[in-house]
Fold this sequence. Notes:
Number of domains: 1
Largest sheet: none
Oligomer: single chain
Amino acid sequence: MLRRALKRIDQPAAAIAGLAAVALCGYVVVLPLWAAHTPMLTDVPFHTATAAGIRHYFDPEWHFQEQFALRLVGVPYLSFYGLIAALMTVFSPLVATRIAIALMLALLPAGFATLAWGMRKSPLLGLRCDSRNSLRAVLRGHSGSRWV
């Protein structure tokens, strides 16, 4: 299987098409995040504030332990908050949130490709993850030109 993948890489047209697909996905993910000067959506500032609270929870100057109890078990955004909190050590809160959103969105096609590959379907179906019903398309193995 590895030999077959390496053989495809040797073909220049396939390599150029793969790079073009990655560049297009990067363009689609990054451009909307950096085009706006303020956070998009209503939820983004609240997610940033929650991640900042998690980041400074053990800091005695912020007094979060006196006011809040840290319960991370039932939080569906735990990896997102952890990523933002880690990025806040280097970047400003807004830039850290934008980078975290871009990374999570960029990994979405990889997750779909892994799901399709595990189901013995083409991993290229992961590029269809922008569709509303794309999970159903991946599960059925639909590879036609029509969006499901």
